[in-house]
Amino acid sequence: MCLGMGLAYMGAFVTPEPNHLPVAVVGTGPETKVFARTVKDTAGDQLDVRTVASRTAAVDLLKSRDITGAYVLSAKTPELVVATAASDMGATAVEKVFTPVAGRQGVPLKVTDVAPPVSDDPTGQGLFFLLIALSIGSYASVAALGAAGAGLPLRIRALLAVGVSAVVSVIGAALAGPVFHLAHHDLASVWAMSWLYSAGILFIGVGLHTFLKRWTTLAMMVLFVMLNFTSSGGLFRPELQNGFFGTLHAFWNGAGFVEGIRSLLYFDRDGLSGNVGTLVAWLVIGLLVTAVAGAVERARARRAVREEPVPEPEPEMAEAEEELEESVAV
């Protein structure tokens, strides 16, 4: 666990660098295209630069999270448009790219945030820590169910997983709402997504315990801490990470939860259906793993019954049976 956590967290978070970070240059005409090409040539693979005709189009791309920032060309008042709620670190990275550009023009750069996070979560990273709370509550409960409920039928353990995931999701909704005020609206939807996320982890864990036994905790740590937190986009979106974690971000359940809550709270549900689909897919995987585990446990029980040896009768009992048979015969 020590080695895995070190490799995962330090590999994902210690040296964040732009990796095909998508940005836009706003304007029309040859000057815009030359400027965009210059920025791209200077940045290399760190930036993916496109041009858009209007500031409105750039804002739409920001709110759909297709770009991280948009630079509006102007000789007197250049402007950088960002959406901090999508990624505070991403907005900071884009500002570092374009501030020197405006400086070479000898004019200050105006920064406009079109999707700021709530004042109770100024960096937008509260959702990442909500993810951690839900994850720990879920995978730690798997260890408890494995230890205390190993002798119970799998259907009982599955019902317990449903109940535990409900409790964990209620705690998550309380933390997001009345306790820390991360969610100023749609709290019921936050609870529902929290339940989908927690239930997926619990069913996967309950099913894996049939096969992995004491190694289940390590497997859950790998799946839902080492790979999950680092690819969630809660601190750094994939454009600030290497290709491995960026690839996981496309389908891992933590990314589905964090990006889904962002869509719900800040971006008018843009892309929400895909994020919910990711959480549902992980829950379905958990149900399938649990169903396979149930079939295996039933097969093991039948085999154990068939292989159970018939006990030999005690000598005294055998003599008593012989005497009884003789008496009946007489």
Q: What's the total number of strands?
A: 5
Largest beta-sheet characterization? 5 strands, mixed
- Stretches where pLDDT is under 50 for at least 5 consecutive residues are none
Structural category = alpha/beta
End-to-end gap: 75 Å
- Helix percent reads 55-70%
Radius of gyration: 29 Å
Number of helices: 13
- Look at the structure and give the mean pLDDT: 90
Strand/helix succession: HEHEHEEHEHHHHHHHHH
In what range is the share of β-strand residues?
A: 5-15%
- List the strand order in the largest sheet: 2-1-3-4-5
The general outline is elongated
Describe the structure.
It contains 13 helices and five strands. By secondary structure, it is α/β, with parallel strands linked by helices. A hairpin with a 6-residue loop joins strand 3 (69-72) and strand 4 (79-82). Helix 7 runs antiparallel to helix 11 (253-266) and helix 7 packs parallel to helix 12. It starts with a helix and ends with a helix.
Short précis:
This protein is of the alpha/beta class. The protein has helices spanning about 1-15, 30-45, 55-65, 90-105, 125-150, 155-180, 185-210, 215-225, 230, 245-250, 255-265, 270-305, 315-330, and strands at about 20-25, 45-50, 70, 80, 110-115.
Keyword list:
single chain, 330 residues, alpha/beta, 5-stranded mixed beta sheet, 5 strands, elongated
Give a topology summary.
Layout: H1 2-13, E1 21-26, H2 30-43, E2 47-52, H3 55-63, E3 69-72, E4 79-82, H4 88-105, E5 110-113, H5 126-148, H6 154-179, H7 187-212, H8 216-226, H9 228-231, H10 243-249, H11 253-266, H12 272-307, H13 315-329
Parallel strand pairs: 1-2, 1-3, 4-5
Antiparallel strand pairs: 3-4
Helix pairs in contact: 5-6, 5-7, 5-8, 6-7, 7-8, 7-11, 7-12, 11-12
